[in-house]
Amino acid sequence: MNQFTSVNDVKDISQLVNDALTLKQNPYSQEHLGKHKTIGLVFLNPSLRTRLSTQKAAINLGMSVMVMNMDKEGWALETADGVVMNGSTVEHIREAAAVMGQYCDILGLRSFPKLQDRDEDYNEDFFNKFISYCGVPVVSLESATRHPLQSLADLVTIQETWKGEGRPKVVLAWAPHVKALPQAVPNSFSEWMCRAQQDGLVDFTVVQPAGYELSEDFTPGATISHDLDAALEGADYIYVKNWSSFADYGKILPFPEGWMLTGDKLKGTNNARVMHCLPVRRDLELSSEVLDGPNSLVIQEAGNRLWAAQAVLKGLLENLS
Ligand code: CP
């Protein structure tokens, strides 16, 4: 692996899941790989899980870790070429990324979408420029359109907990929110589940109110539904997440009552396990009853962020040496 920005960077997702679960059993077995290697984690947006799990993963592999909160501590970056920098931006991404690449063997980057211009966000302009100028392998800590470390941890959690016959039915279910949120987590989860479906590991459904359909680029082969109760019937895993509209880009559209997952809605499922990437707004996005109940996997899922990150960093380090 020479970068980790999407499922497309991974040849064999089952092997990567196995690596994560093996590291979970023996966290320090690969400590030698990161000796005298440094990872720089660059954040343009807040984080709890991604920041701490990736730091801990790097430490477990023997790496040194540097964290840069670019939004608060760095110079304001210019990304456009051919402009006279006589405004508020102080440093061009060409130099900033290249300099960080001088100090680090691997870089991680988090950069959320602005949700104003769909083409600009979906072109991943900032992310791609950072990758091309820094000159070292990059791991996505969440980009405008994807959150692959989260999705890998999600797949690890499903594989780790599934004890049934055949493939589990996995449902990505839209949930209400008061803010317009990116599509990065659901895009990425869908992309990984579609690959897992291709590999015979899951059956995958996405359910959302009309107007909230994800880009078809991220849902190849998925069953798409607008009926929550019908989609949840027989579900083994429900992945709850809000996202703003892709079609009416970045907008919160009106939606019917009844989209928050409650204990009552679990009755038609196959005693489904409930997942969420966190942070979650209680009793808005997901009921406390479900979050605190026996079907919730959210803490185990967040714990698996560590092993997912460690498996990815291991793959990147092996490719360096
Ligand atoms: N799920 C997730 O990425 O959490 P953070 O935003 O706290 O890193």
Please provide a written account of the structure.
The protein folds into 2 domains: 7-146 and 305-320, Aspartate/ornithine carbamoyltransferase (Rossmann fold); 148-302, Rossmann fold (3-Layer(aba) Sandwich), CATH 3.40.50.1370. With 321 residues, it is an alpha/beta fold. It has 11 helices and 11 strands. The strands form 3 sheets. A 5-stranded parallel sheet has the order 9-8-7-10-11. A 4-stranded parallel sheet has the order 2-1-5-6, sandwiched between helices. The protein has a two-stranded parallel ribbon with strand order 3-4. Phosphoric acid mono(formamide)ester is lined by residues 47-50, 142, 150, 277-279. It catalyses: N(2)-succinyl-L-ornithine + carbamoyl phosphate = N(2)-succinyl-L-citrulline + phosphate + H(+). One of its GO terms (molecular function) is amino acid binding. Keywords: Amino-acid biosynthesis, Arginine biosynthesis, Transferase.
Q: Which descriptors apply to this entry?
A:
Rossmann fold, 2 domains, 5-stranded parallel beta sheet, 4-stranded parallel beta sheet, 11 helices, 11 strands, 36% helix, globular, binds phosphoric acid mono(formamide)ester
- Give the helix proportion (percent range): 25-40%
User: How much is the average pLDDT?
Assistant: 97
Q: What fold name goes in the CATH topology slot of the largest domain?
A: Rossmann fold
Number of domains: 2
* Number of contiguous helices: 11
Tally of DSSP β-strands: 11
What global shape is seen?
Answer: globular
Topology as H/E string?
A: HEHEHEEHEHHEHEHEEHEEHH
What ligands are attached or bound here?
phosphoric acid mono(formamide)ester
Taking the alpha carbons of the first and last residues, their distance comes to 12 Å
